[in-house]
Amino acid sequence: MKPSVRENEAVSTFPLTDKKTLGYSVEQVDGFLAAARSAYDAKGVSEQLTAESIRHTAFAMQKGGYSPSHVDAALERLEDAFAARERDDAVRTKGRQAISAEASKKTQEIVDRLTRPPGHRFTRTSVLTVGYSLADVDRFTSRVVKHLEKGRALSVDDVRTAVFRPQRGGYREAQVDLVLDGVVDLMLAVR
Prior knowledge:
By secondary structure, the chain is mainly alpha-helical.
């Protein structure tokens, strides 16, 4: 019987990029996943590792590292699992009615911001600085509002993977990203 892995080759958690292509640091990803597994296996909600902290996790790049698309997909599944646990814990400790009231309040705050006039939904950069395209962000945030107010189709992945063209004098990226993170948190909390 022929072995599937040579003796000197370790089995990778994710596919590796070729030796000339950048991927995520194998050591950092493996270390993070070990810590995440420990945090998830522990009883109750982890205070060190949350769905939000998973969303903001970043790894150094290295040639021949883990395939970013595979790792990112795994991180999204991990974020979903932690969010479900956090939601269940919140319902258990606060009650479903309190959680629903919090979600309604957050929804209204987001809708209030995103229904501002086009071109004025976020702070803009100077004309010498590049930000996100006003038209792209306004178009996407209108979709978010339709989802929140009318239940139109929009998935968490649509929000996570939203991409906006660069524009001089565009919206400040950090501010747009923060609001979209809030949308993801809200969508995961009410699943």
